[in-house]
Amino acid sequence: MNRLSPVSSTHRVQRSPTPFRRALRLIVTVTLLMSASPATAAQVTVPVDVGVGPALYHGLGPVFADSPTHYGLKISLAAIINREMIRKHIKRVPKKYRKMALGMREFRYRPSIFVPSSLFISPKLNKTGIYGATWRPIGLSVPLSRGPVVFDVQAGLILTYAFLHSDNAAFQPTNGVMHFFRPGLEIGPRVEIPVVDGFLVSFGWSAQIYVPQIVGGDMFKLPEFDETGLASSLWFVGQAWMKLHFRFPYTTNL
């Protein structure tokens, strides 16, 4: 089947009382997309959403002591599977799950785990510079409002690699450089506003909480989990962001 790969996905649920039902709805929608056979395949056109915009980073510890704000980009790429498309292809879903699938408002189908969700592009304007990327292979969003303006809370698992170079004394054990590589969790609110057909604006803030890494230390070592160890580590980053979204049609086989 020639279409986007189901490596990662983010979906919005509408009335799901338990995490189990949310997960089951995701499985149902993937089943809908993946159950086509060559004999029943048909061409469909879905909107593809490309979003990009600036991001500001702030956080705790020595990395942000001399440079309280760092800069980057927020990125998104997804095929939008809406309720109308689900209804049109509902016969692909097993009968006992059809009611549950019809309860979904929207499914965002992300093409690849290798597309980052954000970038660090922050030259050493003060004492510390950061370059790197964050990937979010698994994500979930829960809507808090209905209507054309979307207000929801997004959460997901993330993985970040960043190269840091600094004149800060905390980096001296590694000659002023640091390779940060850690998994973490991300959660935060988002607002998405349609402007005209095919163009939207979104903005939000997220808290990124990582497995701590000692600043100026080896990436494979963990710090002491006390007040002193956390104060000398990189483990929390806040991200404020805004994106411009452009949507265009994409035709594929389903």
Give the mean pLDDT.
81
Shape: elongated
Number of strands: 10
Number of helical segments with 4 or more residues: 4
SSE succession: EHEEHHEEEEEEHE
Notable characteristics:
254 residues, ten-stranded mixed β-sheet, 4 helices, 53% strand
Could you please describe the fold and organization of this structure?
28% of the residues are buried. The radius of gyration is 21 Å and the shape is elongated. It has 4 helices and 10 strands, in the order E-H-E-E-H-H-E-E-E-E-E-E-H-E. Strands 1, 2, 3, 4, 5, 6, 7, 8, 9 and 10 form a 10-stranded mixed beta sheet that branches. It is mainly beta and 254 residues long. It has helices at residues 19-34, 83-88, 95-102, 227-231; strands at 8-12, 43-59, 70-82, 106-110, 118-122, 128-143, 150-166, 177-196, 199-214, 233-253. The model is unreliable at 1-17 (pLDDT under 50).
List the helices and strands and how they pair.
Layout: E1 8-12, H1 19-34, E2 43-59, E3 70-82, H2 83-88, H3 95-102, E4 106-110, E5 118-122, E6 128-143, E7 150-166, E8 177-196, E9 199-214, H4 227-231, E10 233-253
